[in-house]
Amino acid sequence: MLRGSRAGLPKEIFAAMIARLADGDLDIGRAASDVLKAQTSLSGKILVVVITQLADEDLDVKQATSDVLKAQTSLSSKILAAVVTRLAEEDRDVR
What we know:
Layout: H1 11-21, H2 26-37, H3 44-52, H4 59-70, H5 77-87
Helix pairs in contact: 1-2, 2-4, 3-5
């Protein structure tokens, strides 16, 4: 499968998968999450976009996003700061 490697995959593929996390169809969202979770070293730019999905109203989207972040072998201080910012939101639904 694609585990741990981004070689040869265009950034557009990752953008499409991130967009699918919030797809109204739960099966599509889960499939997108599975593809992204298999990538254990997503770039910072991709992770910044992934983090924006934490603000989605749908709990399944938030869970899928969280799973993608947990699958990463390392997270930069910038990415961790962005996650902490989301967790500090007053709106419980964003956290």
